[in-house]
Amino acid sequence: MSSAIEAKSSDVFRIAKLALTSRLIIGTGKYRSYEEMRAAHKASGAEMVTVAVRRVPLDRSSESFLDYLDPEMKILPNTAGCYTAEEAVRTARLAREALETDLVKLEVIGDQTTLFPDNEQTLEAARVLVKEGFVVLPYFNDDLIMAKKLLDAGCTAIMPLAAPIGSGLGIQNPANLRIMREQLPDATIIVDAGVGTASDAAIAMELGADGVLMNTAVASAKDPAAMGEAMKLAIQAGRLAYLGGRMERRLYASASSPLDGVVR
Amino acid sequence: MRVYLNGDSKDLAESSTLLDLVNELNLPSARIAIELNRSVVRRREWENTTLNENDRIEIVHFVGGGVGETGVESMQILS
Question: What is the CATH number of the domain that holds A212?
Answer without folding.
Answer: 3.20.20.70
